[in-house]
Design brief:
heterodimer; A: mainly alpha; MetI-like fold; 0% strand; B: alpha+beta; 2 domains; six-stranded mixed β-sheet; five-stranded antiparallel β-sheet; 9 helices; 21 strands; globular; cell inner membrane (chain A); membrane (chain A)
Chain lengths: 560, 378
């Protein structure tokens, strides 16, 4: 057996450094009096952090925000998944759009576009409603907890949908059929059989959204902070980034509890997803789930799905394009259209900091994703093919960062980098990004390796091919799809990265999302929109380029 | 026609014999050492279709993987033709790509990113064969497995039976010294398996090639092989041609594994040239005694269901005729499967569908003396 001890050990060291180092540094930092020195041990930071009168409010807000988002998201996802897999709703292709397209729109832009639509002063939708109905005050105020929950739910909807759909479509329909035979109605069967059997998937979705909304920074910063509603992430941001004396010790002390909560949730999640494989029955025979005929409700149901689609994709993009051309937010009118110009675009493209952030983000996207994929290939290889005790440890380590709230891990890395020459360099951001998003690369590559049955390699050897030739003609070509999707995932995430960057980005290492956050804080919505569209354009181009390169590589191989 | 395909595909024939000496392989599992192969000796002649048959975990696949070079034995020697490909004493261990063999895997191992032509051409490309040669030989191999014109299809779009034939074409295309099969039919459904087995039989008999075939399916083994080696717990229990293994085995385990068998403890009372009369719990039975077990020797009487004839009660007194009754009867299509009792002994047998016998009926039972045989008890 090929145990590859050297490779496994070096990967354990690298991945261990990436994932354990920030946690350890965070813990040490939370007990240190000064910043960057660990000489004096103190409990004071914990006392300060948790006796802060504001902390109770933060805790309460976080609780309402995360559970609210989890429930709303999961209910919406269940609705969408049920409509797609189990009913005869027309135009099903639209579900593919719902799941993929919102991922192209960075969270900060999505959030900002809703702030432009629903803020109480000059929100476009508010103004429009006031004009139509002759109201004196705004109808909606986005700067509230329900507003935060609304936007966060839309943001997390695709991921919750992707968790629920496989369970819903793998559902053994005979369970429902026997309920119908026993005399239960369609609706009764739904509530007494279908949903209970899907419980693990539903709980998984709830927990996943809890973790993501706990880590979310776009909504708390762009919507929460103007409304003076602070949650964990924005509270930590407030401690390190605003005011005269950033207190990284106190931030670390607050972060420790967020990290602990997140890790517990992820442990429960992994337990549940392991269990759901046993719970949800997958039958291979005669797999044609009976579709429920919606009859007269077909088009109203489609209207509801179409409406969600509009809110998720069309409206935010439209708002961004529209406001990028305007000097300030105004409702669409003849006056507005007459004032349209490319001024915001020119300003952004002549702004040295915006240009620097563009350059930095592109560099981080390209180099970070490439390094990340190389590391992911090696890690996935050891996890899937070597299968020793050490590779099990590597698997746990590499998925550890899945539970890291970005801003907390940013603080942890800050404690590490401040004593190294890496402080305030792009390399610091690069390391932080790869550490935080490693699971997104390891996951597609693990499944790629799983699909390469050992017989495929062995057969090549028996056919007279050397190990090197086998690697080139069989293993690598079969890995390319996994490498391409890993690269795309990582590159798009790095280009839009916000939560780690808000802590680690310093003057000179600005990145796109942080620059957009600055525009939002200053109310420069026009410039924000222009830079935002450039950002979407860049990540979309990266996706297209990577797909083309992947296809090209595959064609080259086919010809030999 | 067979001869023409043979000339078409493989000319000159390079089939070689295979000699295995003292092959031993240990596994480490949960801290325990498991002996997968225990001093296996085997000679496989050239142009022979040789089957390794046994229950799962008996070491047959390990033996095959050692021959092909995907696993390294702990001790012993393997020689293919004049080449020693593995020897623990001489420190030889040739990598699989140098051994010049062909293999059909249980999963077929069809590469999903290549079309049918590229899959079959792969062994030739790996050996740097010229372009025109590749074209010609791949086409010939595809014609042989009746997949002419399938070259441009994506390999994963083919049915299970077609994928299996692609795997066979790929294994044959480079004219291997020996071709190896690792349970190639076990992934097919019952109907297709029967069809493919016939097809494979035709291919193999036309080819005149040395083949080693691993299976746990006794029908496959009997239908395809020139000789069969039955394996159990890392050892070879018995080697022989299918008829010998089925009708005249030396070992009760083999008798039971190769087909349904009633094994009745017996003592030889009287012995003649070819037959013997033995005492059993149900009375004296005349049976074949090719092992020449002496008078007084202990033996197992092996009586296969199809050679125990069941009839309505009659009053004649032939040898080997007993009276019993039917306990249980199941209709399985071509016959009834029945459990009958003679005295205290339970036997499994088949009853012709037209014989009007039901459960509980009294019957006469006749053992076919030429097809019931004695196995020495150890």
């Amino acid at each position: 057996m090929n145990r590859k001890p050297l490779l496994t050990t070096s990967l354990l060291v690298i991945v261990g450094f990436l994932t354990v180092c920030p946690v350890v540094m965070l813990a040490i930092g939370s007990f240190s009096a000064g910043f960057g020195r660990f000489d004096r041990f103190t409990w004071m930071k914990y006392v300060e952090a948790y006796s802060d009168p504001e902390f109770l409010a933060v805790l309460w807000n976080t609780l309402v925000f995360t559970t609210g988002s989890a429930i709303v998201t999961t209910v919406l996802a269940l609705f969408l998944a049920y409509m797609n897999t189990r009913t005869n709703i027309p135009f099903k292709f639209i579900f593919g759009v719902v799941t993929v397209l919102p991922m192209m729109i960075p969270h900060i832009l999505f959030t900002a576009s809703w702030a432009m639509l629903l803020n109480p002063n000059n929100g476009m939708l508010n103004r429009l409603l006031m004009e139509i109905f002759g109201l004196k005050t705004s109808v909606f105020n986005i700067y509230t907890i329900p507003g935060m929950i609304f936007v966060e739910s839309l943001l997390d909807l695709p991921i919750a949908y992707l968790v629920i759909v496989p369970a819903m479509s793998a559902f053994d329909v005979s369970l429902e059929e026997s309920s119908r035979v026993c005399g239960a109605s369609t609706l009764g069967t739904l509530f007494r059989i279908t949903l209970p059997v899907l419980r693990p998937a539903i709980l998984s979705s709830v927990i996943l959204v809890l973790v993501r909304s706990l880590a979310s920074f776009a909504v708390p910063s762009v919507i929460g902070m103007p409304g003076r509603i602070y949650v964990y992430a924005s509270h930590i941001y407030r401690i390190v980034a605003t005011g005269f004396a950033p207190d990284y010790g106190k931030a670390a002390a607050v972060g420790m509890s967020a990290l602990a909560a997140s890790m517990v949730l992820i442990v429960v999640y992994r337990h549940l997803t392991g269990e759901s494989e046993r719970f949800v029955t997958i039958s291979s025979r005669g797999f044609k789930p009976t579709l429920i005929d919606l009859k007269g409700w077909r088009y109203p149901a489609f209207a509801a799905v179409g409406c969600l689609c509009f809110l998720l994709i069309v409206l935010p993009l439209l708002v961004l394009f529209y406001s990028s051309m305007l000097p300030y937010i105004m409702t669409p009118s003849a006056k507005a259209f007459s004032m349209m110009s490319w001024k915001n675009w020119m300003t952004v493209l002549n702004d040295p900091i915006s240009l620097l952030s563009l350059k930095n983000s592109l560099f981080l996207g390209f180099v970070g994703a490439s390094l990340g994929v190389v590391l992911s290939v090696l890690v996935a290889y050891v996890i899937v093919k070597v299968r020793t005790k050490a590779s099990g440890l590597l698997e746990s380590l590499s998925f550890l960062s899945f539970s890291f709230p970005g801003i907390v891990i940013g603080v942890g890395f800050m404690w590490f980098f401040v004593r190294t020459p890496l402080y305030a360099t792009l390399s610091a951001l690069l390391i932080g990004y790869i550490a935080t998003y490693l699971p997104y690369g390891v996951k597609p590559l693990s499944s790629a390796f799983v699909q390469i049955h050992s017989h495929l390699e062995e057969s090549s050897r028996v056919c007279g091919a050397s190990p090197l030739y086998t690697m080139r003609r069989i293993v690598l070509p079969l890995l390319i799809p996994g490498m391409v999707s890993g690269w795309i995932l990582m590159a798009t995430m790095f280009v839009r990265e916000l939560t780690v960057s808000v802590v680690l980005s310093r003057p000179g290492t600005e990145v796109l999302a942080v620059q957009i956050l600055r525009f939002a804080e200053d109310g420069l919505w026009g410039r924000l929109s222009a830079l935002g569209i450039i950002m979407i354009f860049i990540s979309s181009s990266l996706v297209v380029i990577a797909s083309l390169v992947g296809r090209k590589l595959n064609q080259m191989n086919l010809i030999g | 026609m067979g001869g023409r395909i043979q000339e078409d595909l493989l000319c000159p024939i390079a089939a070689m014999d295979l000699r295995i000496r003292g092959l031993t392989r240990d596994y480490e599992s949960d801290g325990k050492r498991i002996r997968a192969l225990d001093h296996v000796d085997l000679n496989i002649d050239s142009n022979e279709i040789f089957t390794l048959l046994g229950p799962s975990g008996c070491g047959k696949t390990t033996l095959l993987r050692c021959i092909v070079g995907l696993e390294t034995p702990d001790a012993g020697e393997i020689a293919i033709g004049d080449d020693i490909v593995f020897s623990s004493e001489k420190g030889i261990n040739m990598p699989p790509e140098k051994r010049g063999l062909g293999m059909v895997f249980q999963t077929y191992a069809i590469w999903p990113h290549m079309n049918v032509f590229e899959n079959v051409a792969y062994p030739l490309r790996a050996r740097n064969t010229s372009r025109s040669d590749i074209q010609e030989r791949v086409e010939r191999a595809l014609r042989f497995v009746q997949l002419e014109g399938f070259g441009n299809r994506p390999a994963t779009r083919l049915s299970g039976g077609q994928q299996q034939r692609v795997a066979l074409a790929r294994a044959l295309v480079a004219e291997p010294k020996v071709i190896l099969f690792d349970e190639p039919l076990s992934n097919l459904d019952a109907k297709l398996r029967e069809e493919t087995r016939k097809q494979l039989h035709r291919f193999l008999t036309e080819l005149k090639i040395t083949a080693v075939y691993v299976t746990h399916d006794r029908v496959e083994a009997l239908a395809l092989s020139d000789r069969i080696a039955v394996m159990k717990q890392g050892r070879i229990v018995e080697v022989g041609d299918p008829k010998k293994i089925y009708f005249d085995t030396d070992d009760p385990f083999v008798a039971d594994f190769i087909g349904r068998a009633n094994l009745i403890p017996a003592t030889v009372r009287h012995s003649s040239e070819t037959h013997a009369i033995v005492d059993t719990a149900i009375g004296p039975i005349r049976a074949r005694n090719s092992r020449r077990i002496p008078v007084g020797g202990k033996a197992m009487l092996c009586a296969r269901p199809e050679f125990i004839r069941v009839d309505l009660p009659a009053s004649d007194t032939r040898p080997n005729l007993f009276r019993g009754n039917v306990i249980h009867r199941i209709f399985v299509g071509e016959a009834y499967e029945a459990e009958i009792r003679i005295g205290e002994t339970l036997l499994t047998t088949t009853i012709d569908p037209e014989v009007a016998i039901e459960a509980g009926d009294d019957i006469t039972v006749v053992f076919d003396a030429d097809h019931c045989f004695l196995i020495p008890s150890s």
